[in-house]
Amino acid sequence: MTTLHTMGQQHSRRSWAEPYKIKVVEPLRTTTREERDRAIAEAGWNTFLLHSRDVYIDLLTDSGTSAMSDRQWAGMMLGDEAYAGSVNFYRLEETVQKYYGYKHLVPTHQGRGAENLLSQAAITPGDHVPGNMYFTTTRFHQEKAGATFHDVIIDEAHDTASLHPFKGNIDLDKLQALIDEVGADKIPYVCMAATVNMAGGQPISMENARAVRELTDRHGIKVYLDATRAVENAYFIIEREAGYADKPLAEVLAEFCSYSDGATMSGKKDHLVNIGGWFATNDDELFEEVRNLVVVYEGLHTYGGMAGRDMEAMAIGVEESLDMPYMRSRIGQIQYLGELLERWDIPFVKPVGGHAIFLDARAFYPHLDQEQFPAQTLAANLYADSGIRSMERGIVSAGRDPETGEHRHPKLELTRLTIPRRVYTQAHLDLVAESVKACFDAHDSATGLRLVYEPKYLRFFQARFEPLP
User: Fold this and answer.
1) Mean pLDDT of the residues in the chain
2) With 0-12 CB in 10 A as exposed, 13-18 as middle and 19+ as buried, what is 184?
3) Sites of the modification N6-(pyridoxal phosphate)lysine (predicted)?
């Protein structure tokens, strides 16, 4: 028996196993501490710049790192690589319409391609876009198109210890205040992410999504969903919200999406593929503009930067993501890692969300100022300890204010341990937990980092650091 802690409550459950068996394996390379110290130094203490061959357990991201199923690999052989009118596009379009409910679909090479198309088509310079906490590429595209981003997430999302079950919720009072301040005509859409990555993979409730829809309808404002992990969000609604415990994932997802006018999607997450995304909308006029823009930025409107085989694998992945035993095991792995860390009082964002454990780097290194990059420091130290690759989600990811040039100082300074789908076993997660504990036990010796190279855009991908003396 194992013990599961959920939202401050404790109950017992039977052990579970992943609902799949391993058919193909990829050998992992182990390294010495000396090799890892050299590798992280050569990477400028930025885990994005490590060579993957030097990584033992790769928890950098869940984007495009999933293991595809036998059905998906078989579907790849059905790829219709016609430049125009690929049969796989129509299969994907039909699948998204069936499960997500949107009228029009435009494929893209990945999620940020869809974000760019929506921003270019819907935003006029001087607009304001409210959202439930920023995401790096999403905000970049919005700002690049001339908008100002406004965080309207509930306050509990900024508190790592809060046990609010839906910390991704939009604060309706904050949203209304922004509408009153700038006017509804200056808000092209509300950007509603499900789940909220930067808050720790925290979900939105169905009640909140419905209330946001009602508020925006009164003002004639559109709602566009970041649906990247909307299936995971649907799982949390089933698990945590009254009235949904016995409903199938597909039904919950369909209702959730019905409170929006369209969505951007990175298929590299919920859809269990290595590349691809899409933009969907119910708006005929906006669809026409995006379908024209995709030819400029991505590819023809029936492939949008994806091969036919990738679209086929994605269509199959949509269906597989809605299998309840799979999703239960998917979230169960993150909960399992959270249980291990909680036994040792390791500070992380609670309750456990979807796709990752987010370590609270401020609590790890209380002696480090935020401008000494505690989350980046923790990611580097975890790699040096065991070869585990994680990533920073704090001041480095937040970037600089475009007006002042000063660092943005987010309330959350987190190091993300992201679990790829259908890739690692619980034994891998045991090792991860032990490495986190080793770093926590040695937290007093951490000295922090300083920036030595900073790219112009999305600096967390390519920035380089060096240890402070």
Assistant:
1) 95
2) middle
3) 269
